[in-house]
From TrEMBL, chain A:
Name used for this protein in its record: Anti-sigma factor antagonist
Native organism: Pontibacillus chungwhensis BH030062
Gene3D superfamilies the UniProt entry points to: STAS domain
Gene Ontology molecular function: any one: anti-sigma factor antagonist activity
Domain STAS: 3-111
Keywords from the named record: Phosphoprotein
Pfam families noted in UniProt: STAS (PF01740)
Alphabetical list of NCBIfam families matching this protein: ant_ant_sig
Family, similarity comment: Belongs to the anti-sigma-factor antagonist family.
TrEMBL record, chain B:
Domain PPM-type phosphatase: from-to ranges: 123-334
The protein's name: Phosphoserine phosphatase
Keywords from the UniProt entry: Hydrolase
GO molecular function, a single term: phosphatase activity
Organism: Pontibacillus chungwhensis BH030062
Amino acid sequence: MNLNINVDDNEKLKTVTLSGEIDAYTAPKLKETLLPLTQEDQAVVKVDLEGVSYMDSTGLGVFISALKSTKEYDSQLTLVKMNDRVYRLFEITGLTEIIDIETDSTVRGGM
Amino acid sequence: MSTLKMDLSSYKDLLKQYIETQNEQALYRAEQFSKHSIQQNISPDEIVDVHVQALSELYPDIPENIMNSMNFLLETMISYGLAYQEYQALREKQFELQSEISVAANMQDTLLSTTKPNVEGLDIGVTSHPAKQMSGDYYHFVQDQKGSVGIAVADVIGKGIPAALCMSMIKYSMDSFPDEQMYPSSILEGMNRVVERNVDPSMFITMFYGLYDQASNHFYYSSAGHEPGFYYSAKNDEFSEIEAKGLVLGVDRSATYKQYETLVEQGDMIVLLTDGVTECRAGERFIEREEISDVIHQYKHLPAQEITEQVYQHFERLQDFQLRDDFTMVIIRRDV
């Protein structure tokens, strides 16, 4: 299974739309795309995970790196529309407390 | 056939025999000949060369255009010969690396070895299998003089050698905690600072730490984003999730870890695991957590060690014996 990454790089809002699986094989590709975006000064980055059917812990590693870079560059990262299985992974690891996650138009997490 | 040498005369005889009789025997010998050539590092162009020479000796009147075509074939085979040499060199390198990795894996086993404690009244079982040669899973038992048992189960995100190296660091930091600070929340807070300072930002560790106080049969525990385990209540004959909230180690320096406690009754079981167990897939289907507790329930009459082994075998079968992730399960049961 593959991961498709689509980036809509708007001046104000950068939207990354993902579909497929995020695992040890596809995570490096995601990291290469996502980190340069969150490493832009004051960038606002939104990642749409609606099409992600599976993510393992290596995927979490990518989002943690991205989150750490937002603190360095004063940028923002929001994850939206993830399925329950993926959400559970963020929940178990305690990351819902520190990463902005929106599901069904409700904000579940906060900084 | 091992005496067969890459010499012209035997190849010529073989070729002649086949052209005249076209029998299976000659073909079989040709196959043996090629296997032998591979063993002797003889490249494909050398074989074509021998073939061309044998052919011109057997049939001196062979048309010139056929001979030319054979020489043409010889030229085209030369690159194959070179590729083959390269392949041989890589194979040797790979053998070297493999033996180095297995030395490292043995060293990891020695460095991370932990002894399952013998505690009166407790039945403890543990099974841990790496998906590759080196494991990113870790478990460790500590027993203090008062009879309390500490159990750590951890999982490094990332697999293979970097994860394994990281685990050695964890183990040595754990060993440096003084006995009186072995409470789960303080251990995880200490470990969090160690990991945050020393580990690459994209790498992080989940860890569950439990302390079983043998005198009072209380179990104290905290979790740093670790896959929740199960608690089996013998009285109700049912499993529940061991819920403990906490952030994975190495993300936020100031993270704190809540400590929970529970009274363990006779026959109750504490089941700790890593996500290699829950992330198990059967074909395209994921294993549901209930499936794990169902399997444990099925074997609950067995000693703890055998339960962990049976569960492992069950999920190994489901995955066609190809583990995708390291698998670790610890079971602690209060017997008396």
